[in-house]
Amino acid sequence: MNSPMPASPDSAAPPASAWVRFLRSYGPTPTNLNLYDEHVTGALGRAKVKPITLSSPLLEKIKERVASGKPGSILIAGTAGDGKTYHCRSLWSFLGGADKEWSNDSTVKMLTLADGRRAVFVKDLSELSDDQSDEALALMEQTVFGGVDNSIVVAAANHGQILKRLGDLGIREKREHPLRKHIQDAFLLSGTPMDRLAIFDLSHTTHRSSLEEVLKAVSGHEEWDHCGRCTRQWDGRVCPIAENRTRLLGAADGGVFARRLGDLVEVARLNGSHLPVRDMLALVSNMILGHKGKDTKEGLMACSDIARIQDAGTVNKGSLYDNVFGANLPRRRAIDRPVFKALASFGIGDETTNSADGLLVYGNDDAKLAPSFARLVANDSVYGATAAFIAMQKQYLEGEDSARVDGGAGEFLELLVAQRRRLFFTLPDADSDYGHWGMTAFRFAGDYLAMSTALIAKKAMDESTREMLVRGLNRVMTGLLIDNADKIFVASSGGFTQSKVSVLCDTEAPSRRTGGVGLIVKHDPQTERPLLDIALAPGSGNSVTFSLTPVRFEFLCRVAEGALPGSFSNECLEDMLAFKAKLLRKAELIRIQRGAEDEEEAGFGDGALTLKFIEIEQNGHGFSRPVTVRIDA
Amino acid sequence: MRPTIEKVDFAVDEHIWGHRLYDEQLPHLAVLEFLGVLGSNLDNPLLAGADGKVKYQPQHQIRLRGLLFNNPYVESVRDKDISDDDKWTAWKEHFAQDSTKMGDEDMDYLREVFTKFDDFAKAIELLRSSAFEARSNKRWSSKFVFPFGPDALFEDLRVDSGGAANDRRFFARTGELLYLMLSRAKRGPELGQKLVERLFERSVPMNRLVRALQGPVQTAPNPREVGYLPYAKHPRFDVMCDDWLAILSRDMPIYDALDHLITSAGLNLLLYFLECAKVTAGDVEPVEFVCEIVSRERTKVRALSGDSYQSNQALSQRAIKASVESIKLTDEWANALKSDYPDAECAKLMRARFQWPSADGGDDGEGGGKSGNELVKRLADRAEARHDQHVGKIHAAWAKSIGLSSRRLARRMRYAPNDRLLKTMVLTLVTNRMQFDEFLHVAKKRYGLVIGDAEGARLVKDKKVDQEALSENQSNLESRLVGLGLVRKLSDSCSFVENPFGSGEEE
User: Among candidates B87, B70, B74, B64, which has minimal Cα distance to B121?
Assistant: First the structure.
């Protein structure tokens, strides 16, 4: 192979090392927790590389709002890492503020706008003393309620911070602060927006597209071109950093990795785990640079480590698939980060199916499994069936007993975990034998995402998914193993609604909305999730809704398959019992209303009472059998 | 002038707490007894008469309870492969053997009520499934049907060859006191109306089923008066009344609300018990429950919550002693000691206050020739001994029954609220939503619960625990409530407690 570089390959600094070092500063190291924006700006200056730029659609809206001259103030809210300081700083520059003035020590900054108004910037409410914050909040109140038009306040704060400050101020002034409720409602997505207080909540803005953008911005960055000149990749040697980056770009697998990762983040978001932009950057940085070796500083590689890693043969410890879950970080540091905590909830690496594990353990040996093994595991010599893996596998299967019992299989089992992770990201989409969602704790997440997409596009959802939901609902409602997909039993046991087995059928609702009664599954734009809407009588106000997060969906599907309600998630069971109680209450109210309208319905003069007991046929089909009880008045 | 309590050897506990609170009458039994009193006063619920007295005549419903709890033959007869007529005949024979002969001699009316024997069996099974303590080994006449409506209420009885009587074993008047307490609260009558509306509806299906089984109502032979409650007013009565009104206003089925009413009554009655004890013993500090939120790791808060439990456990004994000995501090006592016959004068004072020693010397030969101080000591010993048997066990029994105390993962009992209690608290205190910090603040103010570092500031100041331990305790509670679907986390430092049965309007 030609080697045009005259100098010895091992002594010169690798050409992309400045860029890689800069990328490390985004990674989940213990140091960069607060003052993130300043920290990164500093690192950028030192590295002398082009920065990573991301679009911020909300920033455009904020700029528009100020430029429009509308009176009132602006509140930029979000959690740590959402980009509050970044947005504030960008707005400051856009309006003509000086960089030097921004980076000085003052906590409250003034700026005169082009139209003569005075803008008061508070880049972090938590930095202010009680007096300063009272003053700023008083000014904000005046611009919103007091008709003050010549000033605007631009404040950035955490959700909890601003509510606490307003609450404390209210206590000091012995009144309920007028801004507090409006702001609280805006955070909780209820209530009506106020004209004179524009609230931009950054925690609601990150979606699948944000992750895609971050992935592209980092893995497609021009600074990677330097790697083309790097000697570490000669002679067929593999640089784990370059390998990871290439896989992220998705040329070889058609973008499957990025799509699956996006699915995970989306499911986590719909489960309530919000991922701020800072965490996404940390995730991408960790994915590319993570390495499990003990010698790797803080778990993140630098260009100078590569030669050593290659010589020691531990390239596979830098596997992209392990890095996604922070396997390269000490457990404490990983759990502290919201992104790794959210991804860990999928249990990828620990969850598995019999067929997947069978493939990984016996695949090389078994003639029947060999073709699949070759197709799915051995096709990847860097992170899949490496020489080390094959050797360990052989040792496990054919070695002495000590290779299997008393913890002797520990090393092989660790490799197995890594392989399971890899399988999640590489199993083909419609593979009939091996489904990738089976490698996670959310086996039905794929169905969930498909359903969500269909509902948003106002198309019909998959019929078998719908049946599963209805079956799961019925099983939870009644506590019986009934199989009905045609109707939903709203059942009770006569007494408390929370009893495990409820055989008394209060009402039945068709599983498909007919005549204004029954179940409808639709998309809720406010919560961005699918919604179950069960109407017990025609007309508005007669239905009860239940928001379907991925966890709840998973719960219903598992119960439909036969799991006991209490075993998968107690939280979901509680949610479902609350839903059941609401349905029973709604039924009760409807009956009372009907009783008031229809004189004959008031059953006291009636000599009979009908109780509907739920029974099950041999095939699992449930029906309600009426039992008549004769009563003398 | 203290009223005289009948049928007691002496009256000490009675004047501190009333006649009476009883350990074996757990909160659900107190509420059932309460409903019985309410059932006799539907026209003016929770309103005392002009003479301040409340009377009631509870129901017995012997047939109903016999069918449900003294009737093990239904399943075996139902499963026999014989005709419907034969089943009825066979069952009738079995049942007649054990019948009480108090209105349950002729059960043929059941054949008119149910078309088939199997339907009858199903109805019995249904009612048993929602009964209180159906499977316990209590006597059958102490098992209770769920209070679906007025026909499902009856009082606890001892049934034997002599007849049926309330031996005050499980309906020991605590429910009667509950009735008096709520009627003396400011909003008592309002609560009374609401309860009547929602729990005394004859026409609801389950009540009609109960009625079908029972037939005509059977009541106690005579009306009776409720027990004695020393306080015409007490802040705890109002707190409990407000709590009950809050629970009833939530958008949930009434039968679910009942469960929460029971827990709420238990918590408030327990607090009343401890508060009165403290006041009598001269302690002005409010009652506190330092709670550990059980988590996987052992925390310093566990030890503190155990200490808190022990200290509350000892309160009532101290109150008894203080109450008896307080007579020595009165002017009358000082005068009696200076009089010509101090022993007799002291005995007279004791009798007036404690109904002891009895005027005729009594069976135990007391009263003759003992000095005032000796009498006080004697009474204190006897009162403490009697207190230990039942009233002294109230704290332990009721705290366990409402889910406030537990021995889980610990060597001794301590305060560790369980899921059910936490749910009741949220449903009671939160109309729609409330910030988490505020929730903790209200829980401390209303129930004395100390969980987080803000409420436990005093403990931190006294160096009994460090702030971090309490802070972790607080965040454990937050996670627990998230798991129960009661808390929504907005971001790292901001979370809201939400009532899933809130009315939906903004608070």
Answer: B74
CA distance A162 to chain B (A): 10
Number of residues written out for chain B: 507
Mean pLDDT of B331-353: 88
Q: What pLDDT, on the 0 to 100 scale, is given for residue B30?
A: 96
pLDDT in tens, B118-169: 999 999 988 988 888 877 889 999 999 999 999 999 999 999 888 888 899 9
- Report the candidate in A296, A287, A352, A271 with the shortest Cα–Cα distance to residue A320: A287
> Shortest Cα distance from B157 to chain A (angstroms)?
23
ipTM: 0.80
Residue A383 near residue A402, CB atoms below 8 Å: no
pLDDT at A4 > cutoff 80 = no
In the sheet that holds A118-122, the strands lie side by side as A108-112, A118-122, A151-157, A73-77, A197-201
Distance from CA of B116 to the nearest CA of A (A): 9
Compute how many other C-beta atoms are within 10 angstroms of the C-beta atom of residue B449. 23
- Yes or no: say if A156 and A90 are a contact pair by the CB < 8 Å rule: no
Residue among A633, A537, A544 nearest A594 (CA): A537
Nearest by CB: A496 against B127, B256, B437: B256
Contact between A47 and A21 under an 8 Å Cβ cutoff? The reply is: yes
- List, as ranges, residues 109-168 from B with C-beta within 8 Å of A: 112-115, 119, 122-123, 126-127, 129-130, 146, 148
> Does A582 touch chain B if contact means CB atoms closer than 8 Å?
yes
pLDDT tens digits, one per residue of B207-244 = 999 999 998 999 999 999 999 999 999 999 999 999 99
**Scanning the structure block, which residue is given the tokens 């919201």?**
A338
**Do residues A483 and A620 make contact, with C-beta atoms less than 8 angstroms apart?**
yes
Interface of A with B in 254-293 (CB under 8 A): 272, 274
Cβ within 8 Å, pair B433-A188: yes
Nearest CA in chain A to B112: A630
Q: Which two tokens stand for residue A260?
A: 């699956």
Q: Which two tokens mark B420?
A: 């059910």
**Best residue of B32, B112, B247, B490 to probe chain A, by most A CBs closer than 10 Å:** B490
Residue where the block lists tokens 């309330």: B166
With vertex at residue A539, the alpha carbon angle to CA A534 and CA A541, rounded to the nearest 5 degrees, is: 65
Q: Does B208 touch chain A (CB under 8 A)?
A: yes
Q: Flag whether residue A205 sits within 8 Å of chain B, measured between CB atoms.
A: no
A571 touches chain B (CB under 8 A): yes
Amino acid at B482: V
The pLDDT of residue B309 is 96
Phi, psi of A472 (to 5 degrees): -60, -45
Let me know the angle formed at the C-alpha of A315 by A311 and A318, rounded to the nearest 5 degrees.
140
Instruction: Yes or no: say if A384 and A419 are a contact pair by the CB < 8 Å rule.
Output: yes
Which of B209, B259, B483 shows the shortest C-beta gap to A609?
Answer: B209
Interior angle at CA A470, CA A464 and CA A473, nearest 5 = 140
Question: Given a cut of 70, is residue A344 above it in pLDDT?
Answer: yes
Is A171 in the B-facing interface, judged by CB distances under 8 Å?
no
B489 touches chain A (CB under 8 A): yes
Q: In Å, how far is B251's CA from the nearest CA of chain A?
A: 7
Distance CA B385, CA B392 (A): 9
Assign B433 to helix, strand or coil. strand
DSSP A50: P
Best CA proximity match to B103, nearest among B20, B220, B199? B220
Give the list of residues 6+ apart from residue B31 with CB closer than 8 angstroms, or none: B175, B178, B258, B261, B262, B265
What predicted TM-score, i.e. pTM, was given to this entire model?
0.84
How far is the C-alpha of B185 from the C-alpha of B241, rounded, in Å? 6
Quote the CA–CA distance of B272 and B278 in Å, as a whole number.
Answer: 10
